Amino acid sequence: MIDYLLALATVTLAWWISTGLVLLLNRLGAQWQRASLLAVTALVLLSLIYLPGRSDDRSAAGALLGFGQGLVIWAWLEMTYLMGVITGPRKTPCPSNAGTLQRFWLGLQTSLYHEISVITMVALVIFVAGDGPNQVAAATCVSLWLMRWSAKLNLFLGVRNYNSDWFPAHLQYLDSYTRRASMNLLFPVSVTIGTIVAVLLLGQAMATNDPFLRSANLLVSALLSLAVLEHWFLMYPFGESVLWRWALTPSAKPPSSAHKNTAAAEVPSLGVPKHP
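Above: the chain sequence. Below: its structure as tokens.
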């Protein structure tokens, strides 16, 4: 169990720091944003170049490095959206009289190009990783992708605890595509499936003496555990926003009284993004 706690602590630290850095960058000038995006782009290219060799590394360190590669790639995807580099053809609020199907279609258009880029990048990671035994980078990206879509669908169907004030100013129109509701039918399915998979991976990790398999399963299990926790943030206030107070500069808008102490609008987090 100590191994799982260490893996959870590692993933949580990365989640906390990465979320805070993205929130901070969204409130800094364009020069800082361009510089940070260029730096992360360079890291992504290096990750893709070294990914084939990493896929043959069956050590515990290899699992951790593969996990880090997956996180860097995911962070780049989220940064390109938040900074407005890759979004979608629609950049206006949803009409107030739009029905559910129309709201879904219009909401999809707000991030269509980004959704295509995510699918393309995840497919590229899977392809580049090949058939080597170390598939931690691919598993990380796939896990984040699926849980991201789960969070987005929950936002579309309706959640109780959601803070649109954490959106960058140029993405504030996205709030019009979400709903506030005490519960939706997808939420219990999302948290149940996520929890089951996380527990199954934990069980596999505890059942093996192979250092690589143990580390790989523990890291992805911890990642899914945090993703499930972020789903719960969407429904119930835990005061989690205080965790990133250091990243919210004085220029940031204070949360509105209706939605204070709510989950971040977007985290690349290990990021389960919560944008619509």
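DSSP finds eight helices and no strands in the chain.
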